[in-house]
Specification:
The chain is an alpha/beta fold. It has two domains: 126 residues, 3-Layer(aba) Sandwich (Rossmann fold); 135 residues, Cytidine Deaminase, domain 2 (3-Layer(aba) Sandwich). Helices cover 37% and strands 19% of the residues. It contains ten helices and 13 strands. Helix 4 runs antiparallel to helix 5 and helix 8 packs parallel to helix 9. The longest helix has 18 residues. It is globular, with a radius of gyration of 19 Å. The N and C termini lie far apart (41 Å). The relative contact order is 0.13.
């Protein structure tokens, strides 16, 4: 019996490409204007816009895809900006897409996408199940290690992040010497890092990324990589902590480690 065919539904940046190198998918479907087509020249590659649900489902059926992994950065559209095809219009009404976009947050939108795919016979599989090598390891693997005080600050950061996650307000917190400088809201992690640069007292902020309660890791995992580290370096950040085995590394681990060591920052898997 042949293995079930798998596809990657790719957003922006290079994390979907890193997964593709490890799992050799039967098909990659990129979101138009967000995925980077040049990365996938050695793979069977198609594109859809965010509103082309009918085209997406037809591609999955045509290629006999039974499993799919959704991965990569996506710019969330406003409902009025979605160019919905006829299938999408039908499903939007059936699943109350307008309500989800307005009131249920990113988690609700991702859960809806998963439900639609599964209702059409395609199982959604997390990247962590396909390639555990992409995950943040436990402990500190940089030359600089968090101090005992830093570990306590990190714990406080996770406590704050978990409280906020319960109301779907984001996954990230910036903390400095026990003081919360900022929490992630609609602007995302990058803007949080920039905002907290101006609030730092020069003691070295720490970025903490957590999980929301009952977060579905098959569709939404925290991501950390070089882009984040570069921003942190600009702001004099001391280090980063995420949940080990529950945080995806967006870039090659050796490259991330080298950059952190060069700029004397720690990376810690809690």
């Amino acid at each position: 019996m042949s293995a079930e065919k798998i596809a990657i539904l790719a957003g922006g940046k290079n994390l979907p490409y890193r997964l593709a190198k490890h799992c050799n998918p039967d098909l990659i479907i990129g979101f138009k204007g967000q995925a980077i087509p040049s990365l996938y020249e050695d793979y069977k590659y198609e594109e859809v816009s965010l509103g082309e649900v009918g085209k997406l489902l037809k591609l999955l059926e045509k290629n006999d895809i039974k499993k799919i992994c959704m991965l990569g950065k996506l710019e969330r559209p406003r409902f009025k900006d979605l160019a919905l095809d006829m299938k999408a219009v039908t499903l939007a009404a059936k699943y109350r897409l307008d309500k989800v976009l307005q009131s249920e947050g990113d988690d609700g939108l991702l859960r809806l996408v998963k439900r639609i795919l599964e209702d059409h016979g395609v199982a959604v599989v997390g990247a962590h199940k396909l390639c555990p090598a992409l995950l943040l390891p436990v402990g500190s693997f940089t030359k600089v290690k968090p101090s005992k005080s830093d570990i306590q600050f990190i714990k406080r950061g996770f406590d704050v992040a978990h409280a906020l996650g319960a109301v779907d307000v984001g996954q990230a917190v910036v903390i400095e010497e026990g003081v919360v400088l900022g929490v992630e809201a609609a602007e995302g992690t990058d803007e949080l890092i920039k905002r907290c640069m101006t609030l730092s007292r020069g003691k070295g902020p720490i970025l903490v990324k957590a999980l929301k309660p009952e977060q579905d890791l098959d569709i939404d995992m925290p991501v950390f990589g070089l882009d984040t580290l570069r921003l942190m370096k600009e702001g004099g950040y001391k280090g980063f902590s995420g949940l080990a085995a529950k945080t995806l590394m967006a870039d090659d681990q050796d490259e991330v480690l080298s950059y952190a060591d060069q700029h004397k920052m720690f990376i810690h898997g809690s």
